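User: Please predict structures.

Assistant: First:
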Amino acid sequence: MAEQTPHQNVTFQSAGREAHGYLAVPEDGQGPGVIVVQEWWGLTDHIRDVADRLAAEGYVALAPDLFGGRTTHDADEAGQMMSELPAEEGARLLAGATDYLLGREEVASRTVGAIGFCMGGGFVLALAAQQGEKVSAAVPFYGVGQAVPDSYEDLTAAVQGHYALQDQMYPADAAREQERQIREESGADVVFHYYDAGHAFHNDENTAGNYSREHAELAWDRAISFLRAHVK
């Protein structure tokens, strides 16, 4: 295999247009594939760091840019950018990213995993419901209700959710209802974990101040173990 660049910006075709993303590859140049879905802030340094951390765990991680290069740390602007991204368009772009990742020579798995945060939590579930057996593990972290599917009947991926009991943007009761719906409609392996924390507790750049190192590390360890068990 040719020498690989561990971390790079990439361009690929998706949904009939040119799309961009950030690709992180393990040091040995090969591993299972994982799609990383951004928060409503955009493809920020934090999301790139998540991809890098996955690469350090042995995964080939691709974080598609859903906002066309735009990022922000202002909640109102982030909400506006999210509102301008139709759920269907975002799901199509992620589908193209999935095919692109599976086609990379560095990817040593027949399926991909998908992990997403905040806005990406809903898009991870939409991607898994849309792509069927191409996605074998879906890991949503919290969510804001954006892009959450109406139906999970076509979802075959195992699902591990990470939700916050003090989340004002996506209450725990909504997450529990979502957990119930996924389990009943898909018949897939579904486990949700709930943390005594606030929204975006995993984001160590979180401007809202909800980052919790204890809960973030526990959730990350669980997510990595889950991906290892299901992405082959």
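Second:
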Amino acid sequence: MSLESLHTALNAIQVLRSSVGHVFETLANGIRADHGEDGKETKFVLELHELLSKVNGNLREVEQAVNSLTPPPGPFNLGNTSCLSQETTQDRQALYPQLVESYKWTDKVHEYGNLAVALLSQNSLKRSYINTSAKRRRTQTSSHNVPPQAVDSVIATIDRLFNDMHVKVSRPFATNAVLQITLGRILKAVVAFKGLMIEWVLVKGHNEEFSTELGVGGVGGQLDLWSESRYCVFRKVTENANAAMLHFYSPTLPELAVRSFMTWFHSFNTLFSDTCKRCGNHLHSGLPPTWRDFRTLEPFHEDCKP
């Protein structure tokens, strides 16, 4: 590629930019006084037509000048920027190689972008290959909106699975069920539901209560879902139980999600007798293994869990 042809192409681009700028300037000024009063709109349109014809001619000249250029066969020559390598300042000596690398990287981005456009244009970008014109299946009932009878049936089935876990169902908040679970003589828990979705889990010691103080005349207080246990071990179990609640959540299979959570929770019946599968100790940092693996139900300390 000769410098003369490159200079010609640059001049053609400069002329084109100037002519385009003149068009926009004329449009911005609108009809002027020198157009006169008679047929001023026609004169203005004719002037624009002449300017656009000139832009069209300049554009053809740019295309011809660019087509006559050939890409350089060797590495990029950045002209006077090569003098940067002679800079005496230490932090500027490596600027020229960085410029060359940036140009190469930009060319690769353009190349990969063109390839990506070619590949994406061959696909319709559909989420699936299923024909959407077919009749849609009826949307399944949300796990939030389940009749109380269905919830009681699921809970009764789960209660029969574990002999050492007693489950009591109450509904202090409208139709949503709240389970009060007693796991042997180890711990107690409150599990709040919304439909068949578990919303909250609170674990306390076997000697702790979930109700507020007795009211007037010795009548029992209200159910307390928020006061934490005074024991650190059961506060940690509460934290892990809420993590398990989120892990087993399934909007499409709510019964399986509840049954899986209850199976996981039942594994705490050996909270104070199991040893950690990682370190083999009963206690670590003063706590028993308060974590149970979601798949194998193996006990781990908080610092030993995988």
